[in-house]
Structures are given as structure tokens and as C-alpha cells.
Amino acid sequence: MSNQLLDTFRELSNLPTTSFYEQKILEYIKTKLDSYKIEFHQDSWGNIFAEVNGKTPNEIVFISHTDHPGFEIISKHKKNIYLAKALGGLPKNCVTNQTNVKIISNKSDLYKGKIINFYSKENKKTKIPKNYRWMTSEFVLIESESENIKLPSFAVFDLPETKYFGERIVTPVADDLAGCALIIETLNKLNKSSNEYSFKAIFSRAEEVGLIGARLIAANELISKNSIIISIETSSELPGANFGKGPIIRTGDRLTTFDNKAELVLLQSVKEILRRDVNFAYQRQLMSEGGCEASAFAVFGYSVTGLALPLRNWHNGNEQGDVEPEEISLLDYENAYKIMTNLGKLDIVKIKDYFKNLMMIPEDAKKLINEE
Q1: Domains of the chain, each with CATH number or no CATH
Q2: For the whole model, what pTM was predicted?
Q3: What are the φ/ψ torsions at residue 244 (nearest 5 degrees)?
Q4: Is the pLDDT of residue 366 over 60?
């Protein structure tokens, strides 16, 4: 695997981000695209669009999101204690374990802190299973080393920087900065070749709080309705979608099932790779733990599919609900890149060509004719 492919992810994953506070990630992406001489622009909501033109207007659009679950610090509770709102699904024991956080204020000021309590006045009491591993409280209290944090600010778990352990990448944030890194480096490679397809990329905002950036783009048709949308994600490891066994061609998520027309593009890419490497590892599965941006486009009539990396400690939560770094596999990451970059070598994939053999009626069909 190239150092460049790994370095881009490592640099991205060590930057703090959460919904509505993705500025450091957005600035990194813009700087990287500019260095690769890839055209891009931002819409009025801050989503980034990049493009690499091909020989035809047939368009493949990669999408990933720039946020990760975290906390928005919204008011001072007393002295150096602040009220914070959870943004996205977070592991329940982050409070009882008084998990350390990093507080980012005024764009770049950094403070240490820890989560000390639920904010009971604002929390709704709900009956939940004992083995449920996620926070059900919307607000927490965070104790900071500073009494003078400028608001609003945000906080993320204070976890070790990204490291590689054999075939594992252990990181503060894989979801979805791994997807962002894959798209950046895929565009860089496609930008140096002649492609039948035209390629676009979307780096969307506020996915963890309801696919907001993607929904705005789809609802306002900022991308052609003839596009094929490919969500590049990480998704919680499931039986049949195993860590280290290859990236997953995602047939659906918790919200919707996806589209065969779009999926064929990924399947054709894999088919051609397998001609060169019979041991190439990939998987195919409906990943039902969470929703992804493909669903935001599907409900507005787009043709969608997905490519996902099996993820351990999804949203930094282990099975007990304790805070842990996320983990992805080096092989899964590299093979996803191979599938994505190989799309540049494809002719336009058509259903009638891909399923040519299935559409041919065999001679044995004559045996079914009623001869009475």
C-alpha cells in the first residue's frame, strides 16, 4: 500500500471533527484537492464538490461525510462546568467512566476536559434493554480545565493518534474520514488517466445527526439525477461482513435497499480485478446497523449503491458501551481503493451486457413445452 494512501487517512483522522464543526476537515480536503490540481467548489451549506471529467457525461459520484459523533458545548453550567449536547450516537459509558475529551474553541484553542454527568433536567426517561450500548441522554456535563471557553465550542473523545498494528489501523476516527481519504486519493489517481466515466465527489456535512448535508444536496438536485451515487463508508462489523475479509459492496443499510443498476458498476470493477488476481478479497452484504448517505439520495429517486469497510468499535463504542478507538483493516482499506480506482478503466456498464448469459434462454427450455 502506498505511503500516500495511508498518510492522507492518518492526517485526516487526527483532526477533531463533529457535526456542524467540520472546518478543520474541510480545510484539509480543500488544500489536498488543490495540491492535486482537482477542481472543486463549496455550496452554501459548506459541502465540498470535486470533479474529474471523463470521455462521456456518464457520471459516478462518490460521497463520504466529514463529521463524527461528538458534543456541542452550548452553555456554561457553573464555573468550569459546561452543558454539552450529544451529536450522533455515542457510547453510554462515556459518562460513568468520566471519559477525557478535547475541547476545541474559537476554531483552534484547545482545552482538556472530562465528561462528569448526565444533565438530568433535559433528559427523557426511557425504558431501554440492559445490553443497549448507546447513550439515551441528549445532554451531558463536561468539566474543563478552563473557565473561559468561548461558545459555542465542540468536544471530541481524547484518544491516541492513529497507529498501525500489523493488519489493523487503530484510530480516533475511521467513520467517515477513511471514506474521505479513499475518495481524495482515488480522484488523484483518476485525474491522471483517461476515463470513460466522469467522476464527482461530495464531502458532505452533518451526516451523524440525520444525513443533513446529503439530504440538502439531493433535495435541491445539485447532482444530476442520471448520476450513479456510491456511498463510501465504514459500517459496524456484522456476521457475513467480517473485518479483514475485504471491503463490502453494500446492498442496503438500515433505511433502504439500494439499486442494482448502480451496484453493477462495483461488481464489474471487482470482476475485472479478479481476472488479474483470483485471491482478491471483497464481500457483499446488506449493512443494517446504520444509515448512510446513499439512502438520502435514494428517497429522491437517485440510483445508489455503497462500498463499506467493516468497522470495529463503531462510533468509538465497544460491545459493553465503553469508549475505544475505532479500527479498520489495512487490507479492507487498500482493496476498497483498488475497486474505486479500477472504475476508471471500465467501459460504460449496461445491465443487458452484464447479465447477457442470464438473459439468453437455453435450448433445454424446449423441454418445458406442453406436448399434450
Answers
A1: 3-68+161-354 (3.40.630.10), 70-157 (2.40.10)
A2: 0.94
A3: 85, 5
A4: yes
